[in-house]
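User: quick one, sequence for these C-alpha cells?
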C-alpha cells in the first residue's frame, strides 16, 4: 500500500486549513479579553481561553513569557502579544479586514 505524500513545512503553512495555535490568557472581568474573544470568533480562529484568575500556573507562565501582569495576553505559536493589539494579531493570523 503506497504511503500518502507528506506536506513540507512550507506546503503545510500554505494550506488553507492551517491555523496556528492560539492561547488567550484572560480573566472573566476584563473587557478587552471579551472583545478579543469575540474578534477571534468573528474570524473563526480557534483558541484556548485560559482564566489566569483561577489558574496560578498559567498566570506564572503568562508573567514569565510576557513580563506583564495585565490581560489579555495572546500566545500565537509562541509569539506573545500584550493587550488587544489588532494590527499584530491580524499580522500573525493573516486576518484581512
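Assistant:
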Amino acid at each position: 500500500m503506497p504511503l500518502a505524500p507528506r506536506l513540507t513545512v512550507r506546503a503545510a503553512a500554505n494550506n488553507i486549513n492551517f491555523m496556528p495555535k492560539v492561547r488567550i490568557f484572560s480573566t472573566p472581568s476584563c473587557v478587552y479579553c471579551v472583545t478579543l474573544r469575540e474578534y477571534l470568533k468573528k474570524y473563526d480562529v480557534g483558541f484556548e481561553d485560559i482564566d489566569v484568575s483561577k489558574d496560578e500556573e498559567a498566570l506564572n507562565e503568562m508573567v514569565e513569557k510576557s513580563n506583564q501582569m495585565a490581560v489579555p495576553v495572546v500566545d500565537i505559536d509562541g509569539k506573545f502579544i500584550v493587550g488587544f493589539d489588532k494590527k499584530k494579531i491580524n499580522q500573525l493570523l493573516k486576518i484581512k479586514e
